Amino acid sequence: MAKYFDVHPDNPQPRTISQVADSIRQGALIAYPTDSCYALGCRLGSRDGIDRIRTIRHLDDRHHFTLVCQDFAQLGQFVRVDNDVFRAIKASTPGSYTFILPATKEVPRMLQHPKKKTVGVRIPDHVVTQALLAELGEPLLSSTLLLPDEEEPMTQGWEIKDRLDHVLDAVVDSGECGTEPTTVIDFSDGEAEIVRRGAGDTSRFE
């Protein structure tokens, strides 16, 4: 049965955020709000968390997981970014974008694309997510909370708890969330390739 955390959207309660972060450190799989839509999240090196996300979403081993980072300094520890790409990403963050880039050795092999050795990264523009990342002190391994055979993610924390109570450890609710996943830009070859059009404006990458 998943714990339910009711978090203020503008002034997240430090004690509640600390409790959520502690549960992640202890191996919890959570559902949490972002600036695009709800996501599933767990600790960076949690094989159990990855397996559970794959099971919930019916994902294969070619799926790009995302490291949700607090800021650019943290992002730079996990992916290689050349100068041109740096400028493009810097101008778009924080925001509703996921960038696919070559992974550094800091990224566990199980998170990397098996052939390309890439990983997704993003810096969200969301008060609650940022508070959680600051408390956690490391990226959150994430994937959009989009269930198999459904076209849109769920938008309400209580609805997620009701439907996924048996497979999640915690649900963070800070009010209604969006329904559009992030825009995904693949920079792994140095040029911007739009993989998915979502909540982020694509015009600067076209």
TrEMBL record:
PROSITE patterns per record: YRDC
Annotated SUPFAM superfamilies: YrdC/RibB
InterPro entries in UniProt: DHBP_synth_RibB-like_a/b_dom (IPR017945), Sua5-like_dom (IPR006070)
Coiled coil stretches, renumbered: none
Pfam families: Sua5_yciO_yrdC
Gene3D superfamilies linked: DHBP synthase
Domain of life: Bacteria
Domain YrdC-like: 14-200
The protein, known as: Threonylcarbamoyl-AMP synthase
Species: Streptomyces cylindrosporus
